[in-house]
Specification:
The protein is mainly alpha-helical and 208 residues long. It has seven helices and no strands. α1 runs parallel beside α7, α2 packs antiparallel against α3 and α3 runs antiparallel to α4. The chain is extended, with a radius of gyration of 26 Å.
């Protein structure tokens, strides 16, 4: 009787360990399924068409080129195209991921910051130029191990993951990279369409 009382706690602890292992396996399987669904979602033709239609509407509001374009205006328009394509990509993700929410939030912050900077530039037109300061975080980053430096670099490449742990960064990367691949395919198709239409129009003009 005493021996059974002594063995029971051991058996119960083993059962609890087994149940926790099963829960972890189920959770990992659900995460893998979700990641696979995200990759399939971005590679699907329906998602491709949704992003293409939204991107074309957004680009129609951006003046990409004109005959009177100056060298200073071209980088600004290229930046506008990149911001429009990233914003549409985040809107297509519908805020389900950290990177999409970060892109939409940064766009709002940038809009208010540009407005504030324009007002500040008008007031402080004759202010002194400040010396470039060295960031303390940059100096600390030089002394980090190689793995931590790579994790920090990866977190900077993915929007919204600058200060996140490695599991969160990897989870976002599995969704962010397929989204970028779809974005590149759509932009390449638009560039090919525009170049072919311009070449055909120039051929018609030369023949006449």
């Amino acid at each position: 009787m005493a021996s059974s009382l002594i063995l029971n706690p051991v058996a119960s602890s083993e059962r609890s360990r087994d149940s926790s292992r099963k829960k972890k396996k189920k959770k990992a399987a659900r995460e893998d399924d979700r990641q696979d669904q995200d990759q399939i979602k971005w590679k699907s033709q329906a998602q491709h068409q949704v992003y293409s239609s939204k991107l074309l509407r957004a680009l129609s509001q951006v003046r990409i080129s004109s005959p009177e374009s100056t060298p200073n205006e071209m980088p600004r328009r290229g930046r506008a195209v990149r911001e429009a394509s990233d914003t549409v990509l985040a809107m297509t993700a519908k805020g389900r991921s950290r990177w999409s929410r970060a892109i939409l939030t940064n766009r709002l912050k940038l809009k208010f910051r540009n407005k504030h900077n324009r007002q500040k530039a008008r007031v402080a037109g004759n202010s002194r130029t400040k010396k470039p300061s060295v960031s303390v975080l940059r100096l600390r980053g030089k002394g980090l191990p190689t793995v931590q430096r790579k994790v920090r670099l990866l977190g900077r490449l993915v929007p919204g993951c600058r200060k996140q742990p490695l599991p969160v960064i990897l989870d976002e990367v599995t969704d962010y990279i397929p989204a970028l691949e779809m974005q590149i395919r759509v932009l390449s198709a638009i560039v090919n369409l525009v170049s072919s239409s311009s070449s055909s129009s120039s051929g018609i003009d030369s023949s006449t």
